[in-house]
Amino acid sequence: MAATAASAGGLVGYPQVWWVRVADGAGGCWGGGMGDVKLTRQLLREGYESSAIAGRVRRGELFRLRRGAYATDEVAGRESDLRLIEATISQADTDVVISHLSAAAVHGLPYYRVRPHRVHLTRPGGTSGGNIRGPVHVHVAPLSAADRTMIDGLPVTSLARTTVDVARTLGFRRGVAVADAALAAGMSPDLLLQTVDTLAGFRGIAMARRVAWFADGRSESAGESESRAVLADAGVPEPDLQYEVFDAGELVARCDYVWREHRTLGEFDGLVKYGRLLKPGQTAADVVVAEKLREDRLRDLGWQVVRWIYADLAQPQPLSTRIRRAFRRASLSTNAAV
User: How far apart are CA 151 and CA 112, in angstroms?
Assistant: First the structure.
């Protein structure tokens, strides 16, 4: 397993952008303020009758999150998911904790490629059981004190336990993205492996163990992590990460992946990547031109460069073929130089 610390981003100038914590005050009835989430019982205590609550919903003053829970304004994305999680846990039994993909959202891990359709909770118990009722999936599993934590008043599985639960239920690609993020956030590799061992015999634990051994906290985006997983499944040799290329002591580029023995660099280009490279007064076109010039300089230094985007991950074979062609070009170039 690789190092846990991640430094700033893909090519030169990339910032770290993954880790988003739950907003202060997002906690529910577990000790934090309810924030913008209102339960029916609270509204009734404030003097609103059921008909008045329905009227506020019709007028757009309240937004229904789930039965018995409302928000005071409308949001989307992660914030919407967090509000639904908060509303659900506030109405749940006190022995359950937020878990699985829902816990990933609370921890600020990269879960957005698989938006949760249900809120996942875990109740301490044996090795099987649980139920799904509408938008809530209650799992039953052992929960030690080390498996639990509180984030802004919300009871949630620990970073390590959340990582293992996601890996064993969502598979290698998604599991690696979450595990890389957790390591970059400071989780110990040894703790991750120990947590895997505590769930020996559970469904999907072999996959979780594979994820734990493969995870690398130097990845700087979910796309970079998923790329590594996809390429590994396609049989491409494992690259080193965040490689700096110098020319006469000058830093030319910092690249996502390197296959040193093949003189090949790899770059995952996410949708926001060029936007993060923008400097004051620059346009996106300026950045694209600068990147093209930088890539030309890398090639002039004898490197092969392969770039890809999220869409390429859906077709691993063509992507792996492109990388292997780069390996062959580098080999031919080296032989010709000799």
Answer: 19
